[in-house]
Amino acid sequence: MMFISNISIKNFRNFDSISVDFRDGINLLIGQNNAGKSNLLRALGIIFDSSTKKQLSINDIYNNIPLEELKLHSPKVSITVILSQSKNEDLMGGELVTVSNWLISLQEPYLAQIQYEFFLPEAHEAKYMDDMQDVSSKEEAWEVINDNFIRLYINKTWVGEPDNQIQIDGESLNKFDFQFLDAIRDVERDMFSGKNTLLKNVIDFFIDYDIKSDKNLTEEEQSEQIASRKKEFDITSQ
Fold first, then answer.
1. What pTM was computed for the model?
2. Could you report the per-residue pLDDT of 225-234, keeping only the tens digit for each?
3. For residue 160, what are the contacts with CB-CB under 8 A and spacing of at least 6?
4. Per-residue pLDDT tens for 161-176?
5. Parallel/antiparallel/unpaired status of strands 3-12 and 77-84
6. How far apart are alpha carbons 4 and 43 in whole angstroms?
């Protein structure tokens, strides 16, 4: 099974530019509050979570870009993910087929790449430059972007070498299982109270994960085993 070996983020939320390497297996992110741990996971969600909105807002763009840079070119968000071959990956399995168009290196361990971009199309860049000529502060620059240009921004997700501009295949992307649980601010409130508790989400995900990921089972067999597992859990937890 392949794994995410690196993510590079530019101009997304509180990140101006960051590159983070991951190891094969479990990875742990540690940092102070508001350091960007959740934003890093949200960046991954933009690529891998089909339910995440791909069209960003002006609040998702890093807002501390120098005025000189804003006047040179419209701000762009980019998120690049590198997938690497795992040590015990079966090359005859479906993983390599899934990412065949994503490959940037065929040598073992192979590397595949996905790059998301949120940007102003080049057709509007001249107008952007004109509007920015007389801007004298960052606050004014962001007002111009918000009022005149953010609605014109588009998003694209490329695979493989970005210069080839191969757009991602949604069917292949749906084969990735991405789950995101937001940060716990109040343990008792967030995990044990309310209708949509965090604890319930964790249990729902892990209680049948081994069954859902067992490729030797048919969909009918999976449904039967999942129903049986949840029934057994309900009885023992009473």
1. 0.79
2. 988 888 887 7
3. 101, 102, 103, 104, 112, 113, 166
4. 888 888 888 777 777 8
5. antiparallel
6. 13
